[in-house]
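User: I'm new to structure prediction. If I give you an amino acid sequence, what do you actually give back? Let's try with this one:
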Amino acid sequence: MVRVVVTDGIDSSAADSLRALGCELTEHFYELDELAQIVKECDALVVRSATKVREPIIDAALETGRLKLIVRGGVGTDNIDVEYARSHGIEVKNTPGASSESVAELAIAHIFALARHIHEANVTMREGKWEKKAYKGIDLFGKTLGLIGLGRIGKAVAAKATALGMKVVYTNRSGHKPENEPYKHVDIDELFAVSDFISLHMPKSESPVITSAEFAKMRDGVFVVNTARGSLIPNDDMLAALDSGKVAGIALDVYSEEPPADERILRHPRISMTPHIGASTIEAQARVGEETVKHIAEQFGLE
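Assistant: Good question. You get back a string of structure tokens that encode the predicted 3D arrangement of the chain. For your 303 residues, that looks like this:
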């Protein structure tokens, strides 16, 4: 019997499917010392972002050699030492297509929030204030959205923004311009210069993508959205750009530290915040579960 350990939760329909395939399923979050013991006794490990599968955990699994598959329910695999695991015969999979539309919709929601001061007005209204004149916003129609990264999520954001009448430009780390792409490819400096809104859609990088130097190249009054990785924008540089007035507003779903403890961010009136909920929709979780079940079934030949 294939033993599957799920540490960060899984959709109930996926759990039922795994049991129907004959798997022994354990759903429980383990601290690292406990996890180091558990991986010795399971065939597949399913994690989200909370569980970190680093070399010591992989080394513990190798003591018995039972663990054959790690599945990251989500887009990236930053929390797993992928190459190390694969070099020791442990396959690593993720579910990149499952949450693309959901993350894209959240990015668009944050764009609306910034453009119309929804995040600010929601707070002041609850404080009994009626600050109608303070919240004059802007139309999205005709504005330029610059996308840093045009993968699955970036393309989904681009399609939704185009439907709203926005102009879309994009850049990517590879510099590759796909054929028949309907959106304009520009270098990153031009993207900074022409964009009214900038949205990040790229995996973790070795160094930040937007620092004070990049903020300086942007239009005055630009809005920035980060639903990708918190480490892409340093907190100090982001706050300096906001406080100087260079940046009109920033939206965050991801943070360099989660949950964030920096009171400057938590209390800043021009930061629209959500608690890393890009993939937190009923539909996305069902799709993540379906892809996870598929990976496990294929790995172990289950029908």
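You can read the tokens as a compact description of the fold. Here is one thing that stands out. The chain has two domains: 3-96+282-300, 100-273.
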